[in-house]
Protein backbone atom coordinates (compact mmCIF):
# COMPACT_ATOMS: atom_id res chain seq x y z
CA UNK A 1 0.00 0.00 0.00
CA UNK A 2 2.84 2.36 0.88
CA UNK A 3 4.53 1.70 -2.47
CA UNK A 4 1.31 2.53 -4.32
CA UNK A 5 0.99 5.81 -2.39
CA UNK A 6 4.63 6.66 -3.14
CA UNK A 7 4.05 5.91 -6.83
CA UNK A 8 1.10 8.30 -7.08
CA UNK A 9 2.94 10.95 -5.04
CA UNK A 10 5.95 10.76 -7.37
CA UNK A 11 3.73 10.71 -10.44
CA UNK A 12 2.01 13.88 -9.20
CA UNK A 13 5.39 15.55 -8.64
CA UNK A 14 6.44 14.46 -12.12
CA UNK A 15 3.36 16.08 -13.71
CA UNK A 16 3.83 19.30 -11.75
CA UNK A 17 7.47 19.45 -12.81
CA UNK A 18 6.52 18.93 -16.46
CA UNK A 19 4.08 21.83 -16.19
CA UNK A 20 6.97 24.07 -15.17
CA UNK A 21 9.26 22.62 -17.84
CA UNK A 22 7.02 23.45 -20.80
CA UNK A 23 6.72 27.16 -20.02
CA UNK A 24 8.18 29.69 -22.44
CA UNK A 25 11.97 30.07 -22.04
CA UNK A 26 13.09 33.37 -20.54
CA UNK A 27 16.11 33.95 -22.81
CA UNK A 28 15.69 32.54 -26.30
CA UNK A 29 19.33 33.07 -27.32
CA UNK A 30 20.73 31.16 -24.33
CA UNK A 31 18.01 28.55 -24.74
CA UNK A 32 18.99 27.83 -28.37
CA UNK A 33 22.62 27.41 -27.34
CA UNK A 34 21.55 24.96 -24.62
CA UNK A 35 19.50 22.96 -27.12
CA UNK A 36 22.46 22.70 -29.52
CA UNK A 37 24.75 21.63 -26.70
CA UNK A 38 22.30 18.92 -25.61
CA UNK A 39 21.94 17.70 -29.21
CA UNK A 40 25.68 17.14 -29.27
CA UNK A 41 25.83 15.52 -25.85
CA UNK A 42 22.76 13.29 -26.22
CA UNK A 43 22.64 12.80 -29.99
CA UNK A 44 25.97 13.18 -31.78
CA UNK A 45 27.90 11.45 -29.00
CA UNK A 46 25.55 8.45 -29.31
CA UNK A 47 26.16 7.83 -33.03
CA UNK A 48 29.15 5.52 -32.48
CA UNK A 49 27.46 3.14 -30.04
CA UNK A 50 24.22 3.08 -32.07
CA UNK A 51 26.12 2.29 -35.27
CA UNK A 52 28.29 -0.37 -33.64
CA UNK A 53 25.36 -2.23 -32.10
CA UNK A 54 23.18 -1.91 -35.21
CA UNK A 55 25.64 -3.42 -37.66
CA UNK A 56 26.28 -6.50 -35.54
CA UNK A 57 22.69 -7.10 -34.52
CA UNK A 58 21.53 -6.62 -38.13
CA UNK A 59 23.99 -9.31 -39.21
CA UNK A 60 22.91 -11.57 -36.34
CA UNK A 61 19.21 -11.24 -37.30
CA UNK A 62 19.86 -12.40 -40.87
CA UNK A 63 22.16 -15.23 -39.79
CA UNK A 64 19.62 -16.50 -37.25
CA UNK A 65 16.88 -16.47 -39.88
CA UNK A 66 19.07 -18.33 -42.36
CA UNK A 67 20.03 -20.96 -39.81
CA UNK A 68 16.59 -21.49 -38.28
CA UNK A 69 14.38 -21.12 -41.35
CA UNK A 70 16.53 -23.12 -43.74
CA UNK A 71 13.94 -25.00 -45.75
CA UNK A 72 13.60 -25.56 -49.51
CA UNK A 73 9.94 -24.51 -49.44
CA UNK A 74 10.86 -20.94 -48.39
CA UNK A 75 11.75 -18.53 -51.20
CA UNK A 76 15.09 -16.78 -50.81
CA UNK A 77 13.50 -13.34 -50.54
CA UNK A 78 11.74 -14.29 -47.27
CA UNK A 79 14.95 -13.71 -45.30
CA UNK A 80 15.37 -10.13 -46.46
CA UNK A 81 11.67 -9.43 -45.95
CA UNK A 82 11.60 -10.87 -42.41
CA UNK A 83 14.84 -9.07 -41.51
CA UNK A 84 13.46 -5.71 -42.65
CA UNK A 85 10.31 -6.18 -40.60
CA UNK A 86 12.24 -7.22 -37.48
CA UNK A 87 14.71 -4.35 -37.77
CA UNK A 88 12.22 -1.59 -38.57
CA UNK A 89 9.39 -2.59 -36.26
CA UNK A 90 11.21 -3.78 -33.14
CA UNK A 91 14.98 -3.84 -33.11
CA UNK A 92 15.83 -0.24 -34.00
CA UNK A 93 12.97 1.68 -32.31
CA UNK A 94 12.87 -0.48 -29.16
CA UNK A 95 16.27 -2.07 -28.53
CA UNK A 96 18.23 1.03 -29.55
CA UNK A 97 15.91 3.14 -27.38
CA UNK A 98 16.80 0.89 -24.43
CA UNK A 99 20.49 1.43 -25.22
CA UNK A 100 19.90 5.18 -25.33
CA UNK A 101 18.03 4.93 -22.03
CA UNK A 102 21.09 3.36 -20.46
CA UNK A 103 23.45 5.97 -21.90
CA UNK A 104 21.42 9.18 -21.90
CA UNK A 105 19.07 8.71 -18.94
CA UNK A 106 21.97 8.07 -16.57
CA UNK A 107 23.80 11.10 -17.95
CA UNK A 108 20.79 13.41 -17.58
CA UNK A 109 19.95 12.22 -14.07
CA UNK A 110 23.54 12.38 -12.82
CA UNK A 111 24.11 15.83 -14.34
CA UNK A 112 20.97 17.36 -12.83
CA UNK A 113 21.53 15.51 -9.55
CA UNK A 114 25.07 16.88 -9.27
CA UNK A 115 23.77 20.38 -9.95
CA UNK A 116 21.14 19.90 -7.25
CA UNK A 117 23.51 18.73 -4.50
CA UNK A 118 26.09 21.40 -5.39
CA UNK A 119 23.30 24.02 -5.04
CA UNK A 120 23.74 25.33 -8.59
CA UNK A 121 20.01 24.94 -9.20
CA UNK A 122 19.22 26.81 -5.97
CA UNK A 123 21.52 29.66 -7.06
CA UNK A 124 19.73 29.95 -10.41
CA UNK A 125 16.35 30.00 -8.66
CA UNK A 126 17.52 32.81 -6.37
CA UNK A 127 18.34 34.82 -9.52
CA UNK A 128 14.75 34.34 -10.73
CA UNK A 129 15.49 31.73 -13.40
CA UNK A 130 12.87 29.08 -14.18
CA UNK A 131 15.35 26.26 -13.69
CA UNK A 132 12.93 23.53 -14.78
CA UNK A 133 12.54 25.08 -18.23
CA UNK A 134 16.15 26.28 -18.47
CA UNK A 135 17.78 22.95 -17.57
CA UNK A 136 15.26 20.29 -18.63
CA UNK A 137 13.44 21.55 -21.73
CA UNK A 138 16.61 21.66 -23.91
CA UNK A 139 17.26 18.00 -23.05
CA UNK A 140 13.71 17.03 -24.01
CA UNK A 141 13.84 18.95 -27.32
CA UNK A 142 17.27 17.54 -28.17
CA UNK A 143 16.07 13.99 -27.48
CA UNK A 144 12.83 14.38 -29.44
CA UNK A 145 14.66 15.85 -32.44
CA UNK A 146 17.77 13.66 -32.51
CA UNK A 147 16.62 10.21 -31.31
CA UNK A 148 14.42 9.60 -34.40
CA UNK A 149 17.42 10.51 -36.58
CA UNK A 150 19.51 7.98 -34.67
CA UNK A 151 16.84 5.32 -35.24
CA UNK A 152 16.74 6.02 -39.00
CA UNK A 153 20.53 5.69 -39.02
CA UNK A 154 20.25 2.47 -37.01
CA UNK A 155 17.77 0.97 -39.50
CA UNK A 156 20.05 1.78 -42.44
CA UNK A 157 23.18 0.38 -40.75
CA UNK A 158 21.36 -2.73 -39.47
CA UNK A 159 20.19 -3.49 -43.03
CA UNK A 160 23.79 -3.13 -44.25
CA UNK A 161 24.88 -5.39 -41.38
CA UNK A 162 22.29 -7.94 -42.49
CA UNK A 163 23.78 -7.87 -45.99
CA UNK A 164 27.24 -8.51 -44.53
CA UNK A 165 25.83 -11.40 -42.49
CA UNK A 166 24.22 -12.92 -45.58
CA UNK A 167 27.46 -12.62 -47.54
CA UNK A 168 29.51 -14.01 -44.66
CA UNK A 169 27.33 -17.10 -44.27
CA UNK A 170 27.14 -17.58 -48.01
CA UNK A 171 23.62 -19.02 -48.03
CA UNK A 172 21.87 -16.01 -49.54
CA UNK A 173 22.57 -13.94 -52.63
CA UNK A 174 22.51 -10.16 -52.49
CA UNK A 175 19.85 -10.12 -55.20
CA UNK A 176 17.50 -12.24 -53.06
CA UNK A 177 18.27 -10.17 -49.95
CA UNK A 178 17.56 -6.87 -51.70
CA UNK A 179 14.43 -8.31 -53.31
CA UNK A 180 13.10 -9.25 -49.87
CA UNK A 181 13.99 -5.83 -48.48
CA UNK A 182 12.01 -4.11 -51.25
CA UNK A 183 9.05 -6.51 -51.24
CA UNK A 184 5.76 -4.93 -50.10
CA UNK A 185 7.53 -2.02 -48.44
CA UNK A 186 5.10 0.34 -46.72
CA UNK A 187 5.84 3.79 -45.35
CA UNK A 188 3.73 2.90 -42.33
CA UNK A 189 6.65 0.82 -41.03
CA UNK A 190 8.93 3.85 -40.97
CA UNK A 191 6.18 6.04 -39.48
CA UNK A 192 5.66 3.40 -36.79
CA UNK A 193 9.38 3.37 -35.96
CA UNK A 194 9.58 7.18 -35.77
CA UNK A 195 6.42 7.54 -33.65
CA UNK A 196 7.65 4.89 -31.24
CA UNK A 197 11.05 6.57 -31.00
CA UNK A 198 9.42 9.98 -30.47
CA UNK A 199 7.49 8.59 -27.50
CA UNK A 200 10.59 6.81 -26.17
CA UNK A 201 12.59 10.05 -26.39
CA UNK A 202 10.00 11.85 -24.24
CA UNK A 203 9.98 8.97 -21.75
CA UNK A 204 13.77 8.85 -21.40
CA UNK A 205 14.36 12.59 -21.14
CA UNK A 206 11.47 13.42 -18.79
CA UNK A 207 11.89 10.52 -16.35
CA UNK A 208 15.66 11.03 -16.14
CA UNK A 209 15.21 14.77 -15.67
CA UNK A 210 12.65 14.24 -12.92
CA UNK A 211 14.97 11.82 -11.10
CA UNK A 212 17.92 14.19 -11.22
CA UNK A 213 16.06 17.47 -10.64
CA UNK A 214 14.17 16.28 -7.54
CA UNK A 215 17.16 14.53 -5.97
CA UNK A 216 17.49 14.81 -2.21
CA UNK A 217 20.57 13.77 -0.28
CA UNK A 218 24.28 13.57 -1.00
CA UNK A 219 26.55 12.26 -3.71
CA UNK A 220 25.59 8.62 -3.06
CA UNK A 221 22.01 9.48 -4.01
CA UNK A 222 23.17 10.61 -7.47
CA UNK A 223 24.10 7.04 -8.38
CA UNK A 224 20.87 5.68 -6.93
CA UNK A 225 18.70 8.13 -8.86
CA UNK A 226 20.67 7.52 -12.07
CA UNK A 227 20.00 3.80 -11.74
CA UNK A 228 16.31 4.45 -11.06
CA UNK A 229 16.15 6.68 -14.15
CA UNK A 230 17.52 3.91 -16.39
CA UNK A 231 15.34 1.16 -14.88
CA UNK A 232 12.12 3.17 -14.87
CA UNK A 233 12.70 4.49 -18.39
CA UNK A 234 13.29 0.96 -19.67
CA UNK A 235 10.12 -0.37 -18.01
CA UNK A 236 7.95 2.46 -19.35
CA UNK A 237 9.48 2.06 -22.83
CA UNK A 238 8.46 -1.62 -22.89
CA UNK A 239 4.93 -0.79 -21.68
CA UNK A 240 4.44 1.85 -24.37
CA UNK A 241 6.01 -0.46 -26.94
CA UNK A 242 3.14 -2.87 -26.36
CA UNK A 243 0.53 -0.09 -26.37
CA UNK A 244 1.80 1.57 -29.57
CA UNK A 245 2.18 -1.78 -31.33
CA UNK A 246 -1.44 -2.65 -30.56
CA UNK A 247 -2.61 0.78 -31.77
CA UNK A 248 -0.69 0.64 -35.05
CA UNK A 249 -0.84 -3.03 -35.93
Output the keywords.
249 residues; 85% helix; 9 helices; 0% strand; mainly alpha
Walk me through this protein's architecture.
Helix 1 crosses helix 6 and helix 4 packs antiparallel against helix 9. The mean pLDDT is 88. The two termini are 36 Å apart. The protein has nine helices and no strands. The radius of gyration is 21 Å and the shape is elongated. It is mostly helical and 249 residues long. Helices cover 85% and strands 0% of the residues. 36% of the residues are buried.
Structural class: mainly alpha
Uncertain residue ranges: none
Q: Major β-sheet, in short?
A: none
The average pLDDT score comes to 88
The proportion of residues in beta strands is under 5%
**Cα-atom Rg, whole angstroms?**
21 Å
Report the span from N to C terminus. Answer: 36 Å
Helix content, binned percent: over 70%
Please provide the count of β strands. Answer: 0
Order of helices and strands: HHHHHHHHH
Number of contiguous helices: 9
Shape designation: elongated
Task: Write the SSE topology.
Layout: H1 2-21, H2 28-43, H3 47-68, H4 77-117, H5 120-126, H6 131-169, H7 174-182, H8 187-213, H9 219-248
Helix pairs in contact: 1-6, 2-6, 3-4, 3-6, 4-6, 4-7, 4-8, 4-9, 6-8, 8-9
Task: Put the structure in a nutshell.
The protein has 249 residues and is mainly α.
